[in-house]
Amino acid sequence: MIPTETQIRAMHREAAPSREAFASVWTHCRIVWSIASQLMPPDLDGDLVRAGCLLHDIGVYRLAADDPYVRHGVLGEELARDLGLPEVLSRFCSHHTGVGITAADVTAQGLPLPVADYLAESAEERLVMYADKFHSKSTPPSFVTSDTFVVAVSRFGADKPARFDALTREFGQPNLTPLVSEFGHSVR
Ligand SMILES: [Fe+2]
């Protein structure tokens, strides 16, 4: 019921509008999976975490040129549903952004999303959300340290650093060094 890495890779190839978009998003998703693998508590469902990492950003392919980036989550949930994937998987797309978006955030910041909570609820969702914070698809792509992320997320709400701290306490700090060597992306 949970698709394999090969099956999810094929979904990416099918959905990506270009080779470049596929390379960027797929590489990022694999890196997020590597980070989550390092931090995986033994009681989590590893197949679910793998699929969640590999699928979480698939909505990036559906962003129109004028779509705000924050919409990639809900677009990904739609795409995953269109692919026939169950809700337990499509939720990773819409519930991984930042350290969680609340309905109050949507209203207060005027975010272009349906007013709802987009929070990681299961431990698997929390791990995918957390692992995602350590790598960016920026041009050029880079790894992101905790310190850099905390500074960046602070501007989205006073509660955000504490939410990130709670994830750090739950899962610990990843070791980015082997991934920096493997993928050749710098650290910021
Ligand atoms: Fe991501």
TrEMBL record:
<protein>
    <recommendedName>
        <fullName>HD/PDEase domain-containing protein</fullName>
    </recommendedName>
</protein>
<dbReference type="InterPro" id="IPR006674">
    <property type="entry name" value="HD_domain"/>
</dbReference>
<feature type="domain" description="HD/PDEase">
    <location>
        <begin position="21"/>
        <end position="146"/>
    </location>
</feature>
<dbReference type="InterPro" id="IPR006675">
    <property type="entry name" value="HDIG_dom"/>
</dbReference>
<dbReference type="InterPro" id="IPR003607">
    <property type="entry name" value="HD/PDEase_dom"/>
</dbReference>
<dbReference type="Pfam" id="PF01966">
    <property type="entry name" value="HD"/>
</dbReference>
